[in-house]
Amino acid sequence: MEVIIKARLEKLNGVSGTDDHFELSAVRVIVGTESRTSQNMVQISGDGVKGKHAELIHEGEFWRFHPLEGAESWVNDKPVAARDIRLKDRDVLAFGNRTQRYRFCLHSTESRSLPNGNEGKLYRETVSASTLFGSVAPLGYFDLKDNCGTGLQMTYSGDQLTFEGILVGSGQKQLIVEVCHPAQEIEDSSGGRRTKPEIRRDKPISLFVNPDPRALWKEIEPADGLPFRTPHTLALRVEAKDHLIIAASRRGRSHAHDGTFREDDVKVVHDSSSGWSVMIVSDGAGSAKYSRQGSRLVCETAGRTILPALVAVEADGSFEKNCERYFNNDRAESLRSLQSALYRTLAPAAKTAQRAIAEEAGRIEGASENDFAATVLLTIVRRYAFGTFVATFGIGDGGVGIYCDGSDDGNAHETIVLNVPDGGAYAGQTRFITSRDVWVSGDEILRRIRFDIVGRFTAVLSMTDGVSDPKFQTDDNFRDSSYWSGLWEELRTEIDFNGEKPEQQLLEWLNFWSRGNHDDRTLAILMPR
User: Fold this and answer.
1) How many separate domains does the chain show?
2) 1 in a domain, yes or no?
3) What is the C-alpha to C-alpha distance for residues 332 and 319, in angstroms, rounded to an integer?
């Protein structure tokens, strides 16, 4: 244990010489030495002791003082052996027939430590004062004279000190506690009684406060002159006759720390004439230098082309009839017809976005489609009199689900998951709209299309992995309704969906803290009215 000890021998009346005190400074501490396995030995030196060295040894409630030059000695007017001088703070030490009298004053800056705390968190620790300070005299009271800006307060009951509060700041702190030893009756050298006056001492206590991890993240702007600049946040709202859509996207802490752009993007649209609503979220690949433009092209291109295709597929009324037959469990022919219709609408919209990326890459010297790699989650919603139709086309990770909160009517929470995230041979791998193996066959495209028709639901949620990873952690959890219930409870606690700006509240919610999850975050929510 490394400590720093400062002591002084203060000259009292009758001491010859010009110095009024001798300073003694510790240079090192040896714990558990071969010769003194149960002692803490401090080697000290002081010019006032004629340049000689002495030993100051901590022995429980005493400090043993060893001047290397033997002499008759007295402590508090009682004779002691020269090699057995045991001192407490404020004891009087005398040499040479008591003609040289000194008061021993020990000023220790030994690292008395409290357990570590965490910045911004509640701290509450109760410690024993005698253990903390090693005091042996009766203790009167304690006062936290300086909390070093930590925000802590201190209370005490008998020997027990309690430090409590929300910690402010971080790093090594030194608190100062005033310890009061009350006046007490003691026996003097003549056998009589005298009153020892009250003694107050300031005692330093070390406390290390771990920094708030959030405070370590920097907010750095991307370098000037970079192409395809994009804002760090985006919040959207679309009001429809029978539902509300809100969406938000936020630059991740890792991107802000590195001074890079937000790579996620989102698009929400509603066509009042046809009743179709569209939500598109896209996550640009972190390894692709223009992925922010890739995700933007996915959202803008697919959002622009999907609505005309949906209007066209409903033109003859067969789509709605097949939806109703499917909803009523007449699925033999309706399933095939609906899959065919979705194949002709969703897949071409995504393919058009992929072609837009190829064209963009062709305009930049040395660029390839992979430089614009991005995922896509394309979700379409249409409410009919019999139920609500929801379909998705997905490439990559993230997730879409239809959540039904049963708490209002006592039913179980239900979730219909509408996409299967792509994976690779290694953790974190996925596929992108630019991946060639996505477009190799009709079966490969068809397996990425999913749909369902529900009579009642609470919300349709579409999210990038910046949300799904911290909130669900695993694919199995993503299929677990209890996790969806927890997510929805969190959202409706933080967001007033009937308020003036729920999309801004959603944007703020996306700033939640999750250790190890600092990617861009994007979430789109459709709720019935």
Assistant:
1) 3
2) no
3) 15
| Residue 508 to residue 496: CA distance in whole angstroms | 12
How many Cα neighbours within 13 Å face the side chain of 61? 6
Report which secondary-structure segment, H or E, holds 166: strand 160-166
Same domain, 305 and 436: yes
> How far, in Å, CA of 156 to CA of 56, rounded?
32
Domain that holds residue 170: 117-215
Tell me how far apart the alpha carbons of residues 391 and 400 are, in angstroms, rounded to a whole number: 10
Last residue of a domain, one of 183, 215, 247: 215
CA 128 to chain centre: 32
Q: How far is CA 204 from CA 152, 187, 294, 444, in A?
A: 15, 31, 58, 70
Tell me: the pLDDT tens digits for 10-48? Answer: 777 544 444 455 555 443 333 333 333 333 444 444 433
Q: What pLDDT digit, counting tens, does each position of 62-88 carry?
A: 777 766 555 678 888 888 877 678 888
424 and 521 both lie in a single domain: yes
Task: Summarize pLDDT for 353-400 with one digit per residue, the tens.
Answer: 999 999 999 999 999 999 999 999 999 999 999 999 999 999 999 999
Model pTM greater than 0.85? no
**Cα 245 → chain centroid:** 30
β 117-118/199-210 pair status: parallel
Q: How far is CA 488 from CA 53, 402, 445, 481, in A?
A: 72, 11, 31, 10
